[in-house]
Specification:
By secondary structure, this protein is mainly alpha-helical. The chain contains four helices and no strands. The longest helix is centred in the first third of the chain and has 15 residues. 0% of the residues are buried.
Length: 128
């Protein structure tokens, strides 16, 4: 037996038929929203307490992309620095699979290195 069934049995054992009819009339008025002082428990608000609670950011969104302030590096200087630090020159990469070769006209966007020093590094195999 669920809670509502037990509650109905309890009401029937405590109240007369006329009192039960009056209770039903009052409950119908509450459900019809005739009595604004008494509100039934809102199940939706209990399950979703943060529904429609939001705030607007104080700053508006950007309209322009941020300026890249990092200075552009020179790949030749990076090769010289590597040779000074390691004692040997940095060689171009050796491809194991020729399908993964970078197109010859491709240059690095950060240091302008040629395609011989670049490889696909996006986690996808055979990305073209």
């Amino acid at each position: 037996m669920n809670k509502i069934s037990r509650f109905v049995i309890w009401i029937c054992s405590k109240f007369t038929k006329a009192e039960i009819e009056l209770i039903i009339k009052e409950l119908s008025g509450i459900l019809a929203n005739r009595n604004p002082e008494i509100k039934p428990k809102d199940d939706f608000k209990q399950k979703h307490p943060n529904y429609r609670k939001f705030s607007v950011d104080p700053n508006p969104p950007r309209t322009e992309p941020p300026q890249n302030k990092a200075p552009k590096k020179n790949w030749e200087q990076l090769l010289q620095k590597h040779e000074q630090e390691k004692g040997k020159p940095l060689k171009p990469i050796k491809l194991r699979d020729p399908q993964n070769k970078v197109p010859s006209n491709t240059r690095c966007s950060q240091c302008d290195a040629p395609a011989e020093y670049l490889y696909f590094n996006d986690g996808k195999k055979n990305n073209k």
